């Protein structure tokens, strides 16, 4: 029996956390692992490519309607049995998404028996660590380790560095850095260096390829729609690396000056 | 100690509650608390005793996550149908303000034919007078009060904050609540002083409706002096100017003055309006300096810590407050006897006549035995 992995993927908004998370989930499912993906973004789009483009009812939608939420109401099976959960949240600009994550995570903890049966649980958390609500999966004891996704551009690296600072603060180890390429100059070199300077390492370099977009537009993961593509191989390798990963570090964030130097 | 930097850790009234009371003084018929059902429960209930309706949008977890726009619109319609109000107030709470609730839009959407004062307030302010100020600003915007009254109130609030910082509940990091001295003993002392032919001043410097009970102490002291044939030894001051303050506050002053008159209590000096307790100190000090500096004792009720000690220090001071945390600061100011009227507030809401105080009752009982 494998040790259960409970990971969270952090990174600047729009950097590709959801597509990475869903492709890793699909790749692990291909290998026969029991996988769950929990999308924590109010947009509730983390699992959409595992469900053929379909949206599922979110935990918060049901809570809002006063439903006595049961496991089967919120956990939906997608590609190769991947269990998909969406936290949901308010419309942009009203209410409080952070509080929403807290409430949903508490609900999930209470109702879900299958959390313990999984080999891998991926929390796809929204963007940066902006407030207490966004670290609820960690603080409520559901996440054991974190991965940070970045590109070689300055702002995503800046966010990644900031997240590392946050992880150290909440005492959560970093298992690795993943680069989702934006095809900028010296990208792999920069991110590799960043990873090593904060005390971690680069887990994967995901090339920027149109196929990822095409599959997403159709509502599918790369693993399902283009399993033989080059990028599918990269995801497969990343998935394997995550499942085998047994070391992690408390990251040491760089100061602003060093970060700027690194990207020059 | 630097008052600006101390972190006060004893519980104090909140800005939300302060806003509610201000809306009451502006004569709203209904106040809607936009937030969780239990927020400010005790004061909300008390205010209902005072004749206004206090209701809540009762936000729950779902409301905190998704916002309470719809709930507020619903409650606005509901209270309009149920109570046919002439003026409505909406008050924010910690929960609704932290999640960034906007109250103007729901009010516009509800589109009632009634003016609505919205107060965006939570309890996270160092000075709870912020809640009063926000309510007054909104009332000014809504045309309920004029600029002149607003400026007057603003000045009073600043002074009220200063009074609390100097010698009140905001003067120390922690103040333990206390019941003060034994009322029976202090009653005996006053009777003794009067028997000895000493001359005394009663100073009622009360905050708004609390005047209904503090006035009873003025009445009791005068009754005892009368029984002892020393009525002329007593000078009475009270902050019951009937022409000053928000509508409800002026009404309270009128009611109290009517009762004084009916009971035959002469008020020698009117020292301000019922909302002028933070600034009446200067007037009182000047009056004492000019006319009563050789008096022997003073019975000060209401907000005694707002009165400077400059010309009182030679007198024996008996002060009566309704703040259990006020005992130590008053003792430190040099007040020999400090009494606390417990539960004063609940008993003075919704009334329009002087209410018997515990100390007044004690004075009358002790007098029965010893005169």
TrEMBL record, chain A:
<dbReference type="InterPro" id="IPR000392">
    <property type="entry name" value="NifH/frxC"/>
</dbReference>
<dbReference type="Pfam" id="PF00142">
    <property type="entry name" value="Fer4_NifH"/>
</dbReference>
<keyword id="KW-0411">Iron-sulfur</keyword>
<keyword id="KW-0547">Nucleotide-binding</keyword>
<dbReference type="GO" id="GO:0051536">
    <property type="term" value="F:iron-sulfur cluster binding"/>
</dbReference>
<keyword id="KW-0067">ATP-binding</keyword>
<protein>
    <submittedName>
        <fullName>Nitrogenase reductase-like protein</fullName>
    </submittedName>
</protein>
<keyword id="KW-0479">Metal-binding</keyword>
<dbReference type="InterPro" id="IPR027417">
    <property type="entry name" value="P-loop_NTPase"/>
</dbReference>
<comment type="similarity">
    <text>Belongs to the NifH/BchL/ChlL family.</text>
</comment>
<keyword id="KW-0408">Iron</keyword>
<dbReference type="GO" id="GO:0046872">
    <property type="term" value="F:metal ion binding"/>
</dbReference>
<dbReference type="GO" id="GO:0005524">
    <property type="term" value="F:ATP binding"/>
</dbReference>
<dbReference type="InterPro" id="IPR030655">
    <property type="entry name" value="NifH/chlL_CS"/>
</dbReference>
<dbReference type="GO" id="GO:0016491">
    <property type="term" value="F:oxidoreductase activity"/>
</dbReference>
TrEMBL record, chain B:
<feature type="domain" description="Nitrogenase/oxidoreductase component 1">
    <location>
        <begin position="21"/>
        <end position="142"/>
    </location>
</feature>
<protein>
    <submittedName>
        <fullName>Nitrogenase-related protein</fullName>
    </submittedName>
</protein>
<dbReference type="InterPro" id="IPR052673">
    <property type="entry name" value="Ni-siroh_cyclase_CfbD"/>
</dbReference>
<dbReference type="GO" id="GO:0016491">
    <property type="term" value="F:oxidoreductase activity"/>
</dbReference>
<dbReference type="InterPro" id="IPR017675">
    <property type="entry name" value="CfbD"/>
</dbReference>
<dbReference type="Pfam" id="PF00148">
    <property type="entry name" value="Oxidored_nitro"/>
</dbReference>
<dbReference type="InterPro" id="IPR000510">
    <property type="entry name" value="Nase/OxRdtase_comp1"/>
</dbReference>
